[in-house]
Amino acid sequence: MRFWLRSRWNGHGILSEAKFFLSFFFALTALALAVSASFAEIPDDAQITADRMRFDSQSGDFLASGNVVIQAGGLTAYAPRGTGNINNKEVHFTEGVLVSGDWQGDWVDLSSWTASIFFAQTPTYIAEGDVKGEFGKIWIDADKLYMKGENISALNVRRLVDREKDVTFGGQDVRGILRNGVLSSMTAQRAVWLRGRPNSEGEMVNIQGDTAVYSVERGSVVISGSVKAVQKGRTITSRSLVYFPDTNRFEAAGGIAEGRGTPARITIDINQERQKR
Asked: Which residues of 71-107 are buried (b: 16+ CB within 10 A; e: fewer)?
């Protein structure tokens, strides 16, 4: 592994000192690699540059400020300030962060106020504060995003777009599995809303509820708890509702259309605007 700390300060003394520290670190890392397999997932080539930098060869701690850039394993991050520990393989950015490139085989392009990256056996990425951007085939706008392996979670999701299924939803607590850049499963809780695909006339169904559970294997999103669906001026309230993204239709169990009639099973084909009871 090569892990360079490079300073843009004038004068050769500081840069030479940093290289001396890192040469000492490389020797320790080589020894650690020989006795531990836990470092196997560290990127082969990692580099940090900054206008100002401090590095402690004994603890592995570093402090960088001014145009901080880290490049590791196909990922590039930019921030005004960064701290971390080389021995623990972790980096923390603050004051506005841009991260782009390859993450676990998926393309990411995210901005946030802070971000932490842990290059461990299972790399972990945590972003907080006005998190916006894309990862895989997902676009997100949330307060916090956590990614570890295939697991993702987000808090106070204002908008999450699944571009694979052309479905948009939000909720206060969203957790899911991302496989090959595609949302495989998802659970959203509290203040959940979902907007389905538009029909040929551009009209969409808007659904609200307490909880939503999505499964690509079942091909459905189950919304439950005080469910309300609105489409083309029609409103349906029900105990639960199942939306099928592939066919763009939904079924409401115990639903009441437009506040009239008795509870029934209602199926609406959004594409053809056909209602059955």
From this structure: bbbebebbbbbbbbebeebbbbbbebbbbbeebbebe
